Amino acid sequence: MAIKLITYDLNKQGQNYSALYDENKKLGPCINPLDSVWLVQTDIMSSEIRDRLKSVADKNDYFIVVPYAINKNDERAAWLKGEHIEWIQGHL
Question: How far is CA 49 from CA 25, 65, 90, in A?
Fold first, then answer.
C-alpha cells in the first residue's frame, strides 16, 4: 500500500469538520501531522479520495490528494515530530 498526502483549504471559519476528519480516518491508517495535512496508508485512488472528501466538505473547500510515497526509494522530505516520521517509516 502507498501513502497518500491529503492537504486542504477549509474556507469557512467556525465550521464543524468532524465529518471530513472522520472520512480521512475511514480511508486507512492515518496521521494528521500538520493542521491541513493528512497522511493515509491506502490503495484507494486519489480521485476517489477527493470525491469522498467533497461529499462531506463545504462547497468552497479545496483539496489536493497525491501519492506521498510508492516505495522507500522515492524522493521526499519532511520536518515533523519524531512520532510522525516513525509512522511514515513504519508504513512505507
Answer: 11, 7, 22
3-state DSSP call for residue 78? Answer: coil
**Which mean pLDDT values do the consecutive 10-residue runs of the chain (92 residues) have?**
88 76 95 93 94 88 83 68 87 81
Among candidate residues 58, 41, 35, 29, the one with its CA nearest the CA of residue 5: 41
Residue 63 near residue 8 (C-beta atoms within 8 A): yes
- What is the extent of the structural domain holding 77? 2-91
Q: Does the pTM of the predicted model rise above 0.85?
A: no
What's the structural domain count of the chain?
1
Place of cell 461529499: 55
CATH no. for residue 52?
A: 3.30.70.240
**Predicted local distance difference test score (pLDDT) of residue 70:** 56
Strand positions, DSSP E, the chain: 2-9, 30-34, 37-42, 62-69
